Amino acid sequence: MNNENHDIAPIAIDEQNLRALINNTDDPLWLVDVHHNVLECNEAFRTWVHHFTGRHISKGDNVLLNGEHKIYNDKFEMCYKLALSGSNFRTVEDMVINGVQHYTSVTFKPVIDSSGRVTAVSCFARDITEHRKHLFRIEQQNAALREIAFIESHRIRGPVATILGLEQLYNYTDLSDPMNKEIMDGIKKMGLDLDVIIRQVVKMSNEIGV
Prior knowledge:
Distance between the termini: 74 Å
CATH superfamily of the largest domain: PAS domain
Helix content: 55-70%
Structural class: alpha+beta
Low-confidence stretches: none
Radius of gyration: 33 Å
Strand order of the largest sheet: 2-1-5-4-3
CATH class of the largest domain: Alpha Beta
C-alpha cells in the first residue's frame, strides 16, 4: 500500500505543478485536438476568449464555440485548419478591451506523434500592444523626419538661393545706390521667411524628440 502511494504521489505532484505553472502566466496557453476540442488551457486563455466573445470556455469545450460567434470563428477557424494540416505559424489579432485597442501575437504549432500524424495544436498568445504602439511611434517619427528633410532640401533652398543672388547684385562700390535698399529689403524678407521655416523645423523636431 505504501509502495503504491509512493508511485502515485510524484505523478499527482507533477500534474499539480504543471497546472500551477500554466495558470501563473499572463500569456494564454491552450491545446486543441483534431476535433477542435480544448484538451488543456489556462486561466489567461479563458479570460482572453471571454474578451473576444463574452463567452466562457473550459477544457472539453469546442475552441471555436461551435461557430456561434462569427467574428471569433472567422478569425481562428482557418488558423486551426492550417495548423492541423501541419503548418507552424503566427498571426497577429486585434481586439478592443474596455474601449482600448489591443494586439495579440498568436502562435499555432501542430503536435505530431511518433508516426508523423498531427494529433493536436499547441497554441500560445502574447500581448504585443506596447510593441505595436512603439512601432507606430517610430513610424510617426520617420514620417516627421522625412517631412523635415523635405523642408530642409526644398523650402530652405529657395530663400537661401534668393539671398545669395541678391547679395551678388549689391553695389559695394557705391553704397548710396538706390537699388541697395531694395536688395537689403529683399534679403530681410527672405531672412524672415527662413526664420519661419526654421521655427517650424524646430517645433517638429521637439514633437518627435529629436
